[in-house]
From TrEMBL:
Taxonomic source organism: Amycolatopsis jiangsuensis
Domain Core-binding (CB), first and last residues per copy: 10-91
Residue ranges the record marks as coiled coil: none
Protein name from the UniProt record: Site-specific recombinase XerD
Pfam families per the UniProt record, alphabetical: Phage_integrase (PF00589)
PANTHER family according to UniProt: INTEGRASE_RECOMBINASE PROTEIN MJ0367-RELATED (PTHR30349:SF41), PHAGE INTEGRASE-RELATED (PTHR30349)
UniProt keyword DNA-binding, yes or no: yes
Tyr recombinase domain location: 112-296
Keywords: DNA recombination, DNA-binding
The organism's place on the tree of life at top rank: Bacteria
GO function term, MF aspect, one: DNA binding
SUPFAM superfamilies: DNA breaking-rejoining enzymes
Amino acid sequence: MKDPIKYAPGEWGELAREWRRSLEADNKSVRTVVIYLGVVYQAGAWAMAQDEQYGPTETLRGYMKKVLDATSAGNAHNHFRTLRTFFNWLVNEEEIDRSPMDRMKAPEYEPPPVPILHVEKMSLLVASCSGKDFADRRDEAILRLLWASAGRRAEVAGLLLESVDQDYDEVEVFGKGRKLRRIPYGAKTGRAIGRYLRARRRHPQAALPALWLGSTGQGGLTDEGIRAIVERRAKQAGIGHVHPHMFRHAFAHYWQLDGGNENDLMRIMGWKSREMLNRYGASAAVARAHKSARALAIGDRV
């Protein structure tokens, strides 16, 4: 198989190869490694083509301006974060004394809000699976588990039969960084999973280890299969476009809206950085602020 990663000429490429080994040793996903090294390749190729009189910081500022002019603030922001991580790694490896990114500011960028999948729309999604055939049982269990666990699409798709603990109503997912974590789910989700498992026992491919099976004998569902189920059920429910990641944003929103502990939320979601607390549920931050304002009732204290 052809290696999807390109390397810039000279020292940029040599160091990028070493960084790749480090990223892989840290259990970064293949997709993450490809994205990170792609940015370093672009920056390195551009930097090597510049006049030698420019120092690293000025060269990087020029590169960031190029990305901003040619693409978008969001893309430039991602490039900045990747390059900052790369140069911090070089500092930790004692290849350089100080990161040239230390003297640079990230491009201003406000990520667009992700629409929240509200309870009312989730109810319509579940109602679209009201039948009793195999696909209905499976799809309701998948939708309820996405809603109740906030699992990533790939995490839910990758579940095995042995991943489900019906005694404790928990699933064990294989998350980013190849790390396992257990996530609880509620009684309604447990009931939907139980109904699906009973239907699954009669499936021609019931001996397969994958939890979710296709309806027509194609084996276990992929993460693209999960996406297709969500989109198809949303169309049936007449609620517009819905994608699996909206379930995670909704989970974070309702958790924070109801005053859930932030550290607990990080564990459930599989986050290591508190930055994610601000990113997820941000599209509904106004609703949370209004709820707090009403609860505090500062205007009624006089």
